[in-house]
């Protein structure tokens, strides 16, 4: 993935969030030269399977790295008997799914900008230039398009280790609480047994006295 794909992905996310077009265009133009360094992400465990993506490091000390996961299926492909039906939970997968490529977009009619003179009568030049960069990514269309592109702040290794340690401590605390609860239950059971034994002894003594 080059800088062009990186800028497209971020702008694509903003478009889906329905931000004002001018600001999307401005952000897109600003980011197009920033995303240059890539590396593999940590492995994320989900109930559907494990995924890994890429870490995008902007060439700007004021911007933090971002974890990018592309083309993550969130439902079964809406084709065949599932066409026009509500989304159905997707299939599970084994191993680690490398989420580093965009999946097809849903079928849609794209603006015709082949005739620039005519296109400029309908839109500003800024939008035309933006569409020139964006439309190539929208040509791969399919009904099989129920996928997510996820962008999240990259977690530093120290923060990740700290998070794991905290999770381990929480697990230990929970285990400790469970052990304490078990001990309390055992003590209650012993007390009940002792009380039963005492009552049994008392009944035996009464029977002896009556005899």
Q: What does this entry look like structurally?
A:
The protein is of the alpha+beta class and 211 residues long. Among the domains are: 36-106 and 143-158, no CATH class; 108-141, no CATH class. Helices cover 44% and strands 16% of the residues. The strands form two sheets. It has a four-stranded antiparallel beta sheet with strand order 1-4-5-7, covered by helices on one side. Strands 2-3-6 form a three-stranded mixed beta sheet, with no helix packed on it. Helix 1 runs antiparallel to helix 2 (21-31).
Please give the structural blueprint.
Layout: H1 3-16, H2 21-31, E1 35-40, E2 44-45, E3 50-52, E4 54-58, E5 66-73, E6 96-98, H3 116-119, H4 125-134, E7 147-153, H5 157-210
Parallel strand pairs: 3-6
Antiparallel strand pairs: 1-4, 2-3, 4-5, 5-7
Helix pairs in contact: 1-2
Characterize the overall form.
elongated
Unreliable segments of 5+ consecutive residues: 1-33
Please, what is the average pLDDT? 79
Number of helices: 5
Report, as a whole number of angstroms, the end-to-end distance.
97 Å
Transmembrane segments: 21-40
Biased composition (Basic and acidic residues): 201-211
Region (Disordered): 155-211
Keywords: Glycoprotein, Membrane, Signal, Transmembrane, Transmembrane helix
What's a concise summary of this model?
The protein has five helices and seven strands; from the N terminus they run ααββββββααβα.
Task: Supply the key terms.
elongated; alpha+beta; about 210 residues; 5 helices; about 45% helix; disordered N terminus; single chain
